[in-house]
Structures are given as C-alpha cells and as structure tokens.
Design brief:
The protein is mainly alpha-helical. It folds into two domains: 1-48, no CATH class; 50-182, no CATH class. The chain contains nine helices and no strands. The longest helix is centred in the C-terminal third of the chain and has 31 residues, at 152-182. It is elongated, with a radius of gyration of 22 Å. The N and C termini lie far apart (49 Å). The relative contact order is 0.13.
Length: 183
C-alpha cells in the first residue's frame, strides 16, 4: 500500500477513501470573492503540488531504464541470432525490460518517496514552499536510508514487470508485422 493510502487509513480507520472529485474539492478552498485573482491562482496551484518531484523522478527513471534496456536487449537478441522467432523476441525483450525497469525503480525510489510526501502534505502553504531537495533531506533526517527506500519492494515489483510487458509487446508486434509484410 502506498504512503497516501497508509496515511488515510491512519487518520480515518474503517472509512472508505474519498473519490477523486471529492478529494479535489477538498483541496481547493472555496473562494468567496473572484476579485482576489492571486488567491484563486494559489488555490489551483496546490493541485500541481509534487509535479516537480514527479518529473525529478521520471526523467532519471527513463534515463536509467532506456540506457540499461537497449544494450541488454541487443545482447540477449544477439544470443538468439538468426534463429529468432516471436517467442525468443518476447523472452529477450521481457527479460531486458524487467531488469531495466527494476533497476530504474530501485534507483529512483527516494525521489518517489519525496514526490509522495509532497503530494500528501496537509499544510497547503508548506506544500507550495517545499522543494524536492528539502523533502529528501527531511526524509533522511526522519528515517535515514530506510526512509528514503520506503516502498522499494512494491515499486520494483510493479515497475519491472510493467516495463517488461510494454517493451516485449511492442517488439513482438513489430517483429510479427515486419515478418508478415517482408514476405
């Protein structure tokens, strides 16, 4: 279970989590006057809390994933050689994607923790002031290395197979279409 789900359960034992619409309506405070444009913009800006942290996580994730995936995929396909068929292309690509996604997820886990922390911050003013670096330092201070890698198992367990499935599906469809129209 993610940090957000755990945080909700600790506060509201036995209650069902609110839906997306209700959550959004609770995040944006009701603005009495439309004359104060700055307050209106701040109200909506809080919806984007954690975007910088998410991009700080996703860009390195993609860089690690793709720079690991391609050499590994080429190596595995090279082992199959001329005897490649759809099953061997599937196996090589799924394996490479699984390993690349798992490595990238593990390496970027601290950034995922920071993103989640920023998104669940209850104090809207503090949430708008927080930076990813400050959040990481706070997590380190509160929980050390264990805090930075909270949830690494489920994150790796989701990302590895997910990248493996996406890459292998794409490459198998490409292989089948190429061989179907090449003849």
């Amino acid at each position: 279970m993610g940090q957000m789900g755990r945080a909700f359960k600790e506060i509201h034992k036995g209650k069902k989590p609110p839906g997306v619409w209700k959550t959004l309506m609770e995040v944006i405070p009701h603005v009495k006057s439309t004359t104060n444009l700055q307050n209106n913009l701040q109200s909506y800006r809080v919806l984007w809390t954690g975007l910088g942290a998410q991009l700080s996580r996703d860009v390195p994730f993609s860089a690690i994933c793709w720079s690991t995936l391609e050499p590994m995929r080429r190596r595995l396909l090279g082992l199959v050689g001329e005897e490649a068929n759809a099953a061997s292309v599937l196996g090589a690509n799924f394996s490479a994607g699984f390993v690349a996604g798992s490595l990238a997820a593990a390496a970027t886990c601290p950034l995922d923790v920071a993103k989640t922390r920023r998104q669940i911050e209850k104090d809207h003013a503090r949430a708008l002031r927080m930076t990813t670096r400050q959040t990481l330092m706070e997590v380190w201070r509160d929980g050390g290395m264990k805090g930075l890698f909270t949830g690494v198992g489920p994150r790796v367990g989701r990302a590895g197979p997910s990248v493996g499935i996406v890459v292998s599906f794409y490459e198998v469809v490409k292989y089948v279409l190429h061989h179907q129209y090449a003849t």
